[in-house]
Amino acid sequence: MGARKRISAEARKKANKTLYFAKLNNVPTSPRKMRLVADMIRGMEVNRALGVLKFSTKEASNRMEKLLRSAISNWEQKTEQKAETGDLYITAVHVDSARMLKRLRPAPQGRGYRIRKRSNHVTLFVDKLNNNQN
User: What average pLDDT does this structure show over 55-65?
Assistant: First the structure.
């Protein structure tokens, strides 16, 4: 690794130590469906967001709830505080598309229709309201 790359990688690692996040890679639902769930909780207080996700009928909300609990746990470990005080908020949620499985479905007259089975990556950031960095 070159010196310039190493310096930028170390700077990125140092910046990530002050961020509190959790990532979920290769979730087998389409990014569009996951973004609907992410938009429901973006900017909410974490306890309220957990309640919204718990009673949501969407299938993606179960995965998002588990990811939010992981992000809260990461925040508690890094800051050595408890999240029950009620001042912890979801600062950002990123849903990006991941790999796509391509399949063929038989169609009339010898044709084949392409089926794209999409997946996504989710990154969820939490922080106190006054430390909002994203």
Answer: 96
